[in-house]
Amino acid sequence: QQQVKQSPQSLIVQKGGISIINCAYENTAFDYFPWYQQFPGKGPALLIAIRPDVSEKKEGRFTISFNKSAKQFSLHIMDSQPGDSATYFCAASLNNAGNMLTFGGGTRLMVKP
Amino acid sequence: EAGVTQSPTHLIKTRGQQATLRCSPISGHTSVYWYQQALGLGLQFLLWYDEGEERNRGNFPPRFSGRQFPNYSSELNVNALELEDSALYLCASRGKGSAWAFFGQGTRLTVV
Questions:
Q1: What ranges make up the beta strands (E) of A10-112?
Q2: Strand, helix or coil at A30?
Q3: Of A42, A101, A104, the CB nearest to B101
Q4: Do the chains contact at B106 and A43, CB–CB below 8 Å?
Q5: Which of A32, A105, A106 is facing B99, going by the closest CB pair?
Q6: Which residues of chain A have pLDDT under 70?
Q7: Is B93 part of the contact surface with chain A (CB cutoff 8 Å)?
Q8: B97 touches chain A (CB under 8 A)
Q9: Distance from CA of B79 to the nearest CA of A (A)
Q10: Tens digit of each residue's pLDDT (9 = 90 or more) over A57-66
Q11: Around B103, how many Cα atoms within 13 Å sit in the side-chain half-sphere?
């Protein structure tokens, strides 16, 4: 059973545009929602994370929006740059279950110059 | 500060053989997680070790096993390799009391 659904699978954005990736989860007990960025041949790198008691978190050009009632969260990349081209994974975990990450299927982002 | 290190970077094995993958967590981290990233299947949780004990395992057959050593480094063993075991195997570590998990670069296992 896929507990975290991510969309879209791929995304093409022009340089300077806004990239938006959405995730939906099923388990309301999840209490930690990180986003990872992965370049080809590399391991995933932690980008930004949010807890369900916060509706939005911003770090530089990256913003997580969290909607607890809808069980959805999204990543916004403002002023997207070609260097942002990578695969992005949302994830969710449960603190009292060892913080094992359940990942979304990934979004391959391409930012065109 | 050194990140999570995995070895080897690449591993080629024949079907039926055994593979051993190694992971050194970030200094001070006691939890180690293993994930499989197969082409087109995303990241699947394999095993979680904490304080030397296996705490949980994902939906994988028993031929996937591992252990955690007293220095918190970890080994993943895959016995009786099958072609579909070909994947990138990722190790992540987490510090006690923290929710943040950091990944290594992975070991690319190819079964031929």
A1: 10-14, 19-25, 33-38, 45-50, 56-59, 62-67, 72-77, 86-92, 102-103, 107-112
A2: coil
A3: A101
A4: yes
A5: A32
A6: 1-2
A7: no
A8: no
A9: 24
A10: 999 999 999 9
A11: 28
Q: Is the peptide bond preceding residue B8 cis, with omega within 30 degrees of 0?
A: yes
Residue count (chain B): 112
Write the CA distances from B31 to A88, A99, B4, B14, integer angstroms: 24, 10, 12, 31
Strand partners, B74: B23, B68
CB B36 within 8 A of CB B44: yes
Residue recorded with tokens 């969260």 = A73
Q: How far apart are CA B35 and CA A84, in angstroms?
A: 24
Cα–Cα distance measured from residue B81 to residue B20, given in angstroms and rounded to the nearest whole number: 11
Q: pLDDT tens digits for A21-43?
A: 999 999 999 999 999 999 998 99
